[in-house]
Fold this protein.
Amino acid sequence: MKPNEFGRRLGIGVRIAGRIAKQRLEENPAATQTGQPQPALLPNIGQMHAQVTAQITSQTGSQIREASREVTKKAPAYARAAGRGAGAFLRPFGRVGGILWLEVTGFFFGLFAVYFAQDIWRTHASYAAGLQHQRFLIAVALTGLFGYLSISAFWRAKRR
C-alpha cells in the first residue's frame, strides 16, 4: 500500500465517521446541550465502526498481500533514507560537541598546569640543588606537559 493511498483511506474513514457522528447528534439534540454523550448514542458506536471498517477494507485479500509485499521490498530503502536523514540532522551537533569537548578538556588541562606552576613557585629556591630538587623538576615537567595539552586543545578547537 502506498503512503498516499493509506492517507487517502484514513481520510475517507475519518470523514465517514464524522458524518455519522454529526447525524447522530442531529437526531438527539439533548447531547449537544449537556456536552455529554447520551446513552442512546452508545449502542450505535458498534454500527459506526462496522460502516467505517466496511469502507476501508473494501480490498480483497490478494490486494492486501500484494501491498504488504511492496512495503516489505521498500523497507530497507526507507531504513537507509531514515539513517541518512538522522545523520544529516545530527552532523552539526557533532561538530559543535567536538569543539565544546576540546575547549572543556583544554580548560581542565590548564587548571592542572596552573596547579603545577604553583608548585614550581614554592620550590623555585631548590631548582639547582636542594631537598626539593626532584619535586621541582617533576613540577616543571608536568607544568610543561599540561600547558602543552591545554594550548593544543584550544588550538584544535579554534581550527574547527
